[in-house]
Specification:
alpha/beta; Rossmann fold; 7 strands
Length: about 270
Amino acid sequence: MTGRLNGKVALVTGGRGGIGRAICRRFLGEDAVVYAADLSNGGSTNETADDGSRFLKFDVTSEQDAISAMAKVEADEGKLDILVNAAGIEIEHTIEHTSLADWNRIFAINVTGTFLPSKYALPLLRKGAASGASASIINFGSYDGFIADPGLAAYCATKGAVHALTRAMACDHGPEGIRVNAICPGYVDTPMLRSFFGGAGSGANGGTIDTVLDSVKAIHPTRTCGTPDDIANLVNWLASDEARYASGQLWVLDGGLSAQVQQMRF
């Protein structure tokens, strides 16, 4: 039995990160050809990533890297069906303590790093859509683009920008057969989340990672945090032809956290 992405070509930025790696793994399980685009391949110099995807060295803030990555995909496969813009960073400060350099850096990675891959993927995505099935761009917003965690001002601003960009792209490129959506995760147990709890933002406030994660789970209606695989499951559906009518939407995946009237602060 073939997977639901059989015959499709996908590129995932941030493909060696916690969520990006899970997305690549899920796509491979659905029989897609997968390019894992990231700054490094986990210390390996091989063109094949450790999960069987094809590694592309890719700085999402570099226009030339975006051009080169899409040229490589075109040379290998002739088209692109799925682009996932999963690369991103977090800076844990209020605006008062955010330097201009840090502000520019987080916007370069989280926002420009969504714009550039999308811009240069469009010709290949049009070729993918020409086969009769829609092509799909999946951006990464955050529930922090709707509401705010303390100490994450610049991060929240970037995610709000990604949300607006997603809607604009969906309107502009839907007539070309290209669907555009954003996934907006809440708390997902990744190295970035664990770093936040040990960092200068709202952080752990003296607790250990395990005790803080227990507290986080307790304030969710589902009483659990997300996992990278939870995110990959939704990405997989949005990438598939089953989601042919889904576009221009911000898909919040947060265990019901933002549905509450008031959230506990810890």
